[in-house]
Every structure is written in C-alpha cells, then in structure tokens.
Amino acid sequence: MKFNKILKSALFLSLISTMFVGCSGGESDTIKVGGSFDVTGATAQYGIPANNGAQLAIKEYNETGGVLGKQIEYIFEDNKGVQTDAASAYKKLADSKDVIAFIGSDISGTTETIANLAKEDGIPMITPSATKMEITSIGPNIFRACYIDPTQGEILANFASAELKAETAAVLINNESDYSVGIAEAFIEEISALGIDLVAEVNYAAADVDFKSILAPVLNTNPDIILIPDYYETVAKIAPQAREIGIEGTFLGGDGWDGVTEMIGTNATPINGSYFINHYTTEDESEIVQDFITNYTAEYGETPNAFAALGYDAARLLLEGFSAAGTIEDSSTVVTAIQNIDVEGVTGRITFDENRNPQKSVAVIEIVDGQNKLLTKFDSSAK
Amino acid sequence: MDYMTLFIQQVINGLHIGSIYALIALGYTMVYGIVKLINFAHGDIMMVGAYTAFIFMTTYNQNIIVALIIAVLFCSILGFTIEKVAYKPLRKAPRMWALITAIGVSFFLESTVMVLFGANPKPFPAPQSSLIKIGNLQFSQLMIISLVLSVILMLSLERFIQTTRLGKAMRASSEDAEAAALMGISVNKTISTAFIIGSALAAIGGVLFAVAYPQIKPMMGVMPGLKAFIAAVLGGIGIIPGAVLGGFLLGLIESLTKGFLSAFWPDATLWADAILFSILILVLLIKPSGILGKNIREKV
After folding, report:
1. CB distance A237–B125 less than 8 Å?
2. Chain A nearest CA to B38, separation (Å)
3. Interchain proximity B125–A266, CB inside 8 Å
4. B9 beta partners
5. CA–CA distance, A138 with A117 (Å, rounded to integer)
6. Which of chain B's residues have a Cβ under 8 Å away from the Cβ of A209?
7. A-chain residues within 8 Å CB-CB of B119?
C-alpha cells in the first residue's frame, strides 16, 4: 500500500515537472547554450582552458548587449573525459535545461558521443578541439573550430618541402593514437607527392618510455627531417633520447607539441631548432589576438593556450551564427547561418568547408632557446 | 650501420634498462624470500624516490648525488614504516590479506603524490652528459655510470648477504623462518632489514630511471614495477642472483626486439611486450620455479 502511494506521488511529481519544463522552453528570454568539457579528469588540461575561453567569449557578448537583444546563459556540465559522463551531461542539458546550442567537448572520444546525441536534436553544436575526422560527418549540425589531423600532416609536408628543402624524412608513429596515425598517414602521402623520400617509419606504443632501441632505424638512415606527431609529454621523452643516441635531423610536429617547452625542463637543447604548427600563438601582433590575451589573463590569471583560443573562437562562431540567422527558434536556420559564416577569430579568419571543418591559416612555430617563436603564418588553403 | 654494430648497441641499451629492472627486482625478491609477500607497493617506492630527488634538486638546489642519498634515506624510512604499519599486523593473517594491503599501499602512495604534485608529468633535471663514440657505437656517459653503479650495488648486496651476520640471518629466515627464530634470530629485525635495503635499492632505481628518461609522474612506478616483478619471477622469486639475471634478461629481450629485430620485422616494436610475456610463460611452463629456482616438493 505504502509503496503504491509513494509510486503514485512520484509519478505525479514527475508529470508536473515535465509540464513545467515544457512550458519554460518557448518563452525564454535568454539564449541557453550548453557546454561540456573535462575539467576534473585525465584530460582536464585541455578541457579547462577550452571551457574558460568559451565562457570569456560569452561574457564579452553579454557585456555588449548579448545576441539579438537577448543575454546568453551558459550552462555547464563536467564530463570528466569519460564517454558515459559526456552522454549524461548532454542529455541533462538538452532534456531538462532546454539548451538550444552546444559547445563541447575537448577530446574526440567524448565529442563523438555528444555529437551522436546532438544529431538527433538538430541543435547547432561546435567543438573547439576534437580533431577526429569523422566527427563533423555525424550530422549537418556538427561543427568544429580546429583543423583536422590529416590537414596538419599535409601542411607539415608542404612546409618541410617548401621552407626546409628536405629530401629525406622519417616518421615516428604512436600506433595507439588516432591523432598520431592521422597526421602521419597524411604526411606520408603528401611527401611522396612532393618528392621527399620516406627513409624510416617507426611505430611505438603509448606507454613506451625507452626510445633508444626503437630509434635505431632513424639513426641508421640519417634523415633531414623527423616527424613526431604526438603530444608534448611524449615528445619531451623522445627528443632528448634521439639526440642522445646521435640523431641530428630536424624535428617536426603538430599542435600536440604545444607545451613541450615547459615539459622539456631546463635543458632545451634537444628541441631547439624544431618546428611545429599551432592554431594560434601569443606572439601574433594582431589586435584581436592581443585583446584576447589581455582579457583572458585578466579573467583567469594565466596566459591562454591554443585550447583557450579555440574555446573562445568556438563560442564566437556559435553566437555569430545566431546573430546572422536572426532567430533562435529555428535550429536549421542557425545551422545554415553557421555553415556560411565568415568570422575573424583569434585562431585566424574562419570559414567552413562542406564538411564543416574550418578553413583558416596556421601558425608555424620555431623553438629557439627553449622558447616558441612565430616563424610564419602558413595558409592551408593556398598550399 | 651494419647489423653487428646495431646488435651491440642494443645489447648496451638492454643492459642499461635491465640493470634498473634488476635493482627494483631485488627488493621484490628479498621481501618475498622472507615474508612470502609480493609487495606491490614496491614500484611506487621507486616513484617516491624519484620525486624526493626531484624536490631536493629543484627546490633546494642540491646536486644529484646529495639528492640521491636523501632519496635513499627517505625511502628506507618509508619502506620500514610501511612494513611496520601495514604489513606487520597482518603477518599471521592469510596471505591474500597482505597482498590486498600491498595494493592498497600502492594506491595510497600514488594518490598522495598526485595530490601533492599533481597528475601532470614533470621534467626531471637530469645532468647533461656527452656522447661516447667507439667506432660506429654511440652511447651516453650516464648510461655507463648508471650501469656500473647498479652492478656495484648488486655485488655489494651479494657480499652483504653472504658474509655479514645480518645477511646470514636473512638467508636463514628465508630458508625456514620458524627454525631461524628458534636459533635466536630476530625475525622482525631481518624483515625490517629486507624492507630497508629493498626500498633503498628501489630509490636508486627510481633516480636512475628518471635520469635515463627525464620525466616523472605519479604513475611512473607501475610499469617498471610490474616488469621488475616479472624479472624476479623469471629468475626465480626469493633468489637474489635470480632477480639480477631476470632483470638483465628482461632488459635485453625488450631492447633487442625493439631495436634489433625491428630491423628485419618493422612491427616488432609493437609486439615487444607480447614477445616478452610469451618468453615468461614458456620459462614458467618448463621450469615453474624460475630459471634459478629450486624445485621444492610440497608434502601433501
């Protein structure tokens, strides 16, 4: 009997609450934007700055009157870098908070989960930093603010050929990482078209710490350039060991290298003279970049990294989309507006291609005396 | 580079990493020999050693030798305390209890370091070293110093065990703890000694590991700890020369598959761990007590 009562009242309560939720949806006078990043888990070093960047952009829009006369409300849910948490974060925000747009997530795994759910709802979704190629193909409403891994490989190959005049190359591949394999495959394909010889291809596992043995083939073939498409932590392990056994070629890397100068410690000799490409650099003199750095530093007390810049741009792309669409009611109009957008962002001037990947310039960075120096801006579309 | 040079180069690499495995394996094997406990926290003691040296080198600007000595002292005290607090009360309890406690201690050490220093890896300020070239062979001075230091430590440990009173007491306790106690040997003292020496060696192993691969993080002890444990089993757990042999063998197999075999078969680097563990399984199938292990028939 008692159980029955509890059950009934619970049912009644839940019915009422869904009614309320149903009512509140249409008449909202704010633009509710959902966001989910990993701010406490293993990849929090990506999620925290991306989330900060997105929040900064939204705050700036709100201070100048919001979008379409409405204030933007950012509702955040942590996903700990775990796919099941990402799914429940999205469901919570979409079902009970009625968000009409979504920013997230930081890494490809959680972003893919969220994208699959967002596809059903059709609301515009943008990820600052998930680079896995297939993600934006999930649905026509899924966008990203960063360039994809194969693009990085192509750009690096072109840079090696045009600027470094390389003739032989070696590639080190972390076989357990989609990121590493993605860049490496595109790089290998592109250099063969450009006439650079691939003299050594070395596979390693994510947990490897000893690279002196693995690097023997690279030492034997003595290539001009050595591509290490991995994250800074691993790069900081590989580079010193490579120099220790006497490898002399120039190291090249992708955006995962961001942070390698801090990770390498006091002796930066092994990575000096290396090049990597990144989404943006604090050395960029343009006004929008310098303003962003000033505001971000004032807000969070630290210099923004690339993830912060991408989070900032992702939020701006979304909000500019609403502004261009002139409506917040119809998701498909907003999605079309974002597809046709042309925005000057911190990470370059951004337009979207037919797969909703951004077309923009990249910064080529040279490491000099343990410091990142902007070498040149390389346009990916004009290769 | 011809195949011969490549082979020798990889043998040197293998001896280097193998010597570190051996140092850590000694701690496993000594403790197992006396209390029949697999001390899973041993790999984490190695990590604590590396962090202690790191603190003294960065915050207090000590050189690496002072930092190494402090790390050794700190880890000895830590090992002693862990045994007294976590394992001693369980000595009469079923063996599984102590094993689970050891895993608990391992998590405790990892989490403590993670809370104190954060989960992100930190660069270890390893001293710079120059390359030594002999013909086509190249290796760093640090590698040689590390190898020589490990070998000296192993030889002194062997002498300590064979000749001193305490060493003899340890051997006696490991053979038959009850009979040794009846002969007036303090079992508590020998157990403490095993933990102190084991932890000190782990600390040295940790610092050498951090010098060779200059990056430290809270989970850095897990994989080397596991491999050292395998080295101890491979050589015959409880037998001191077995741990040394197992450590060097493991290092050599690993380095030769990754660096030498890969010249003929590019995927060998990815198969390295699978090959390593297949060898372990084979050895244990043929000789369950390890390479140097004695076959002890249990009375039913």
Report:
1. no
2. 24
3. yes
4. none
5. 10
6. 213, 215, 223
7. 42
| Other CB atoms within 10 A of residue A276 CB | 27
Cβ-contact B18, B246 below 8 angstroms: no
Contacts of B273 in chain A (CB under 8 A): 205
Whole-model pTM: value is 0.74
Q: pLDDT by residue (tens digit) across A95-122?
A: 888 899 999 888 888 999 999 999 988 8
Question: Which tokens hold the place of A217?
Answer: 């083939």
Cβ–Cβ < 8 Å for A115, A138: yes
**Whether ipTM exceeds 0.85:** no
Q: How far is CA B283 from CA B197, B258, B289, B291, in A?
A: 28, 21, 9, 7
Residues of A in contact with B267 (CB under 8 A): 203
CB atoms within 10 A of CB A275: 21
A216 contacts B6? CB cut-off 8 A: yes
Which chain B residues contact residue A237 at CB under 8 A?
213, 215
From chain A, which residues contact B within 8 Å (Cβ)?
A: 42, 45, 175, 201-205, 207, 209-210, 212-214, 216-217, 219-220, 233, 236-237, 240-241, 244-246, 262-267
Determine which helix (DSSP H) or strand (DSSP E) holds A338, and give its type and residue range: helix A331-339
Distance of CA A273 to the CA centre of its chain: 25
pLDDT tens digits, one per residue of A281-331 = 888 888 899 999 999 999 999 889 889 999 999 999 999 999 998 888 888
What is the C-alpha separation between A328 and B176, in angstroms, rounded? Answer: 81
The reply to whether omega before A192 is within 30° of 0 (cis) is no
Angle between the B240-259 and B3-35 helix axes, to the nearest 10 degrees? 150
B140·A204 Cβ contact <8 A? no
Interatomic CA distance for residues A147 and B183, integer angstroms? 74
Contact criterion met (CB < 8 Å) for A213 and B267: no
Inter-chain CB proximity A210 and B123 less than 8 Å: no
What whole-number distance in Å separates Cα of residue B206 and Cα of residue B24?
Answer: 8
What DSSP state is assigned to residue A133? Answer: G
- DSSP for B135-200? TTEEEEHHHHHHHHHHHHHHHHHHHHHHHSHHHHHHHHHHH-HHHHHHTT--HHHHHHHHHHHHHH
Q: From the list A42, A212, A264, which residue is nearest B123 (CB)?
A: A264
| Helix locations, A72-177, DSSP H | 83-91, 108-121, 149-162
Q: How distant, in Å, are the alpha carbons of A241, A249, B55, B142, B144 from that of B129? A: 12, 20, 21, 6, 11
